[in-house]
Structures are given as structure tokens and as C-alpha cells.
């Protein structure tokens, strides 16, 4: 198999990375092209050794919260045509789940996550770098709704975490990483023109 094309999609939490990734995935699946999605969130470090109180106070918006060494090794394995043991992470317990999932390489790999463009050593592994640029107030509103509905949080805890880590770390790490991107996408996960442009670039690169 030809070496896979690796697309990295980054941006703030709540910017629309997951939706953009799903929409790109659906566009390829509809025409029968195999695509593999990898989420940086799955590479948050295991914290079984810490009590829940300490886990709740952790800074999850610093690059060191992720096991990027493992992500890098997995991308290299997929490039070489090998399967990987993809970790699973639980946002409610703030640690890895015991099970992993066997993922196979595919011609297109879409990777999404907040710190993907903030680690210089990861950048050479990507073929296309995309930044989803959404105003922070919109990201916060979306995150509030999602974290309360899906991640077992209260409005108070979301607001507190946002002020203490999410917002300052965004300005320190994520916002500057925008300048490493090949494409900056406005209007979140539903920007159809951006989806079409990126899809046609991928199609050409695969020929
Ligand atoms: N352009 C958009 N218009 C309306 N809702 C959107 C748009 N982009 C994303 N969303 C919604 O906002 C929420 C957060 O988006 P998501 O893709 O999960 O963000 P991220 O993965 O960057 O944290 C989701 O409920 C998603 O459906
Ligand atoms: O245990 C955890 C791990 C992460 N977070 C928050 O998640 C977001 C990143 O996920 P998105 O899907 O991109 O929103 C990050 O901002 C962390 O603050 C967490 O709260 N708990």
C-alpha cells in the first residue's frame, strides 16, 4: 500500500474539529474510500495513580497532558502499514480505559485535536495541516452545552476550568499554532466550501 496521507485538524476546544472531521470522513465514505480517524483526546495520559480530586484539578490544556510520544509512534506505524493498539480515554474519570482498539492503516488518516499543531516535532508527520478558527465565545458556548450533556460536568465547573486553564492555554499554545497551518477554516465544522477544497486536494494527492 502507498504511504497514507495524514491530515491534521486542530483548533480550540469547541471550534468544530470533530464535526469537520466527521463531515470529511462522510464525504470519503460515501464514495467508498477507506479513511481512518484518530483523535488526540485518546492520547491523554493515564491517571489511575491519582485520586479523583487531583485528576479534576489537572491542566488538560497543556501539551504535556498528552502522550504525544505514543501518538508519534502510532503515526509512524500506520505509515509503515502496521496496525496500532488505539487507546481509549474517559472524560468522566479523566483516565484511560483498560481496553484498546486494533486500528488498521488506511490511504487517508484524519487526526484531530487541540495540540496537534503546537508540537514542532509532530509537524513533519502531517501532509496537510488545517486550523479551525472559531471565535472563543462561540467555542465556550458549545463547550458548556457539550460538557454538561456528555462529559458529566456542571456549568460552574466548566466556567472555572475555562478561566483557569482552557482560555490561558489557548492563548499560549493553540492560537500561535494557527500559523503553522496550510489552511485556516472559518465557520466551524459546516464550512462546505472548505470541505470541498480539502476533499479535492486529498483526491488529487491520492491519484
Ligand atoms: N458551524 C457550526 N454551526 C453550528 N454548530 C456547530 C458548528 N460547528 C460545530 N458545531 C457544533 O458545536 C459543538 C462542538 O463542535 P465539535 O466539532 O465537537 O468541537 P471540537 O471537536 O472542536 O471540540 C458540536 O455540538 C457541533 O455539532
Ligand atoms: O480529562 C479531561 C481531558 C480533557 N479535558 C478537556 O477536553 C478538551 C479537549 O477536548 P475537545 O474535544 O477538543 O474539546 C480540553 O480543552 C480539556 O480541557 C477535560 O476537561 N478533562
TrEMBL record:
Extent of the signal sequence:
none
Name all Phosphoribulokinase/uridine kinase domain ranges: 6-193
What keyword terms does UniProt attach to this protein? ATP-binding, Cytoplasm, Kinase, Nucleotide-binding, Transferase
**Membrane-spanning segments:** none
Catalytic activity, EC: 2.7.1.48
Q: SUPFAM superfamilies from the entry?
A: P-loop containing nucleoside triphosphate hydrolases (SSF52540)
Q: Which domain of life does the protein's organism represent?
A: Bacteria
- Its catalytic activity? cytidine + ATP = CMP + ADP + H(+); uridine + ATP = UMP + ADP + H(+)
Annotated GO molecular function terms are:
uridine kinase activity
Please tell me which top-level EC class this enzyme sits in.
transferase
Q: What is its main location?
A: cytoplasm
| Pathway the protein takes part in | Pyrimidine metabolism; UMP biosynthesis via salvage pathway; UMP from uridine: step 1/1; Pyrimidine metabolism; CTP biosynthesis via salvage pathway; CTP from cytidine: step 1/3
Protein's name according to its UniProt entry: Uridine kinase
Instruction: Give me the gene this protein comes from.
Output: udk
Amino acid at each position: 500500500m502507498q504511504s497514507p496521507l495524514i491530515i491534521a485538524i486542530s483548533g480550540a476546544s469547541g471550534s468544530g474539529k470533530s464535526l469537520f472531521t466527521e463531515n470529511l470522513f462522510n464525504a470519503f465514505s460515501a464514495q467508498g474510500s477507506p479513511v481512518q480517524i484518530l483523535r488526540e483526546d485518546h492520547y491523554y495520559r493515564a491517571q489511575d495513580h491519582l485520586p479523583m480530586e487531583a485528576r479534576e484539578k489537572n491542566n488538560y490544556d497543556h501539551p504535556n497532558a498528552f502522550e504525544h510520544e505514543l501518538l508519534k509512534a502510532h503515526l509512524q506505524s500506520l505509515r509503515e502499514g502496521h496496525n496500532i493498539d488505539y487507546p481509549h480515554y474517559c472524560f468522566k474519570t479523566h483516565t484511560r480505559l483498560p481496553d484498546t482498539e486494533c486500528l488498521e492503516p488506511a490511504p487517508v488518516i484524519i487526526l484531530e485535536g487541540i495540540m496537534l499543531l503546537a508540537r514542532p516535532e509532530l509537524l513533519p508527520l502531517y501532509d496537510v495541516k488545517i486550523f479551525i478558527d472559531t471565535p472563543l465565545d462561540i467555542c465556550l458556548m458549545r463547550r458548556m452545552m457539550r460538557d454538561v450533556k456528555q462529559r458529566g460536568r456542571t456549568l460552574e465547573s466548566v466556567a472555572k476550568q475555562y478561566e483557569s486553564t482552557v482560555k490561558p492555554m489557548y492563548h499560549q499554545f493553540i492560537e500561535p499554532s494557527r500559523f503553522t497551518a496550510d489552511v485556516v477554516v472559518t465557520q466551524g465544522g459546516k464550512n462546505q466550501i472548505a470541505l470541498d477544497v480539502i476533499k479535492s486536494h486529498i483526491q488529487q494527492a491520492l491519484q
